[in-house]
Amino acid sequence: MIVTIFHCRAISYFTFQSIIAILCEAVPHSNRTFFNSWNLLF
């Protein structure tokens, strides 16, 4: 869980896709795995 949150925050800090980072914080816990895998594509 902590790794996923860190991954989402890392996106906002090291890329310009801050909107995706906001989605990672907003989506339910059940969907975090999906967004985490989806963000790995970018």
Account of the protein in words:
Helices cover 81% and strands 0% of the residues. By secondary structure, the chain is mostly helical. The chain has one domain. The termini are far apart. 10% of the residues are buried. The mean pLDDT is 65.
Task: Please sum up the structure shown.
With 42 residues, the protein is an all-alpha fold. Helices cover 81% and strands 0% of the residues. The protein is globular and about 20 Å long.
Q: What is the percent of helical residues? A: over 70%
pLDDT averaged residue by residue: 65
Structural class: mainly alpha
Q: Roughly how many Å apart are the termini?
A: 20 Å
The percentage of residues in β strands lies in under 5%
The profile of the biggest β sheet is: none
> How do the SSEs run, as a string of H and E?
HHH
* Uncertain stretches of 5 or more adjacent residues: none
Question: How is this fold's topology laid out?
Answer:
Layout lengths: L1 H13 L3 H9 L2 H12 L2
Helix pairs in contact: 1-2, 1-3
Summary keywords:
0% strand, mainly alpha, 3 helices, 42 residues
